[in-house]
Design brief:
Layout (H helix, E strand, L loop, with lengths): L5 E2 L3 E2 L26 H14 L7 E2 L15 H21 L1 H24 L2 E2 L12 H12 L9 H14 L7 H20 L5 H33 L1
Length: 239
């Protein structure tokens, strides 16, 4: 990834000097954005409660006719699991080289993920699309078995995987420090493949994917479109 601020011979210069971070100054303007990271443990706790503690008498099965036309394709296990690495990489990069981009990205994630959690509480749902057995066994089906074992088929609509993938696309496209078109295209294509993997691995219904898009659009308007208009308005006033 290319960064507009470089120091020395091709070395990236972080926009924030975290070596000076202390408990005494963590609430200062330079480091206050780090508190957004507290969302992740909170999200995991709530999701764990939903999956393992929250009493549910019935999960509404999510299904549409398109699901029956989409074949199971185990090779999509690769982009599916790479989603975790992509989210981690984008967090690390933006934290060091694009703090403004990090704030927008994490706010987008907080809104879309929180809506999904709230929806799961109000409307517990599941999918019943997973194959009973695999036609063949290979490294991809074994990875899929691991995914199935660690990720239940409940609380699937709207898809958090899709919301997270859209967050990565918006973060890289709107980044002021990532100049490389190749990087932007790579992250975008990978994120699209991740969205496709959710239905080809039979982890989600097409409905789960589509249901995530309106929520993403609202968050996009809030933190990318409207925020950009606000900045442009401030700049015009200064002039």
């Amino acid at each position: 990834m290319e960064n507009f601020s470089k120091k020395g011979k091709g070395k990236f210069k972080p926009t924030v000097d975290y070596t000076k971070l202390r408990f005494s100054n963590i609430t200062g303007n330079e480091y206050r954005h780090l508190f957004f990271l507290l969302f992740w443990p909170l999200f995991m706790l709530v999701f764990y409660y939903l999956e393992n503690v929250y009493p549910v008498s019935y999960y509404y099965p999510i299904h549409c006719f398109l699901d029956d036309y989409i074949p199971f394709c185990e090779i999509f296990a690769v982009p599916y699991i790479f989603w975790f690495a992509l989210v981690f990489i984008m967090h690390v990069y933006t934290l060091f080289y694009d703090v403004d981009g990090f704030k927008k990205m994490i706010k987008f994630i907080i809104i879309t993920y929180s809506f999904a959690l709230a929806f799961y509480f109000v409307f517990p749902n599941c999918q019943q699309l997973r194959p009973d057995n695999f036609e063949r066994m290979n490294i991809f089906t074994r990875i899929t078995q691991m995914i199935y074992a660690n990720d239940t088929n409940t609380n699937v609509c709207p898809s958090i995987h899709v919301s997270g993938s859209v967050a990565m696309i918006l973060a890289v496209i709107n980044s002021k420090t990532i100049k490389s078109s190749a990087v932007k295209i790579t992250v975008t294509v990978l994120s699209v493949l991740i969205c496709l993997s959710t239905v080809f691995l039979k982890q989600h219904s097409v409905i789960d994917v589509l249901a995530a898009l309106p929520v993403c659009y609202v968050a996009y308007r809030m933190y990318y479109v409207d925020d950009k208009k606000h900045i442009e308005k401030d700049e015009s006033i200064d002039i």
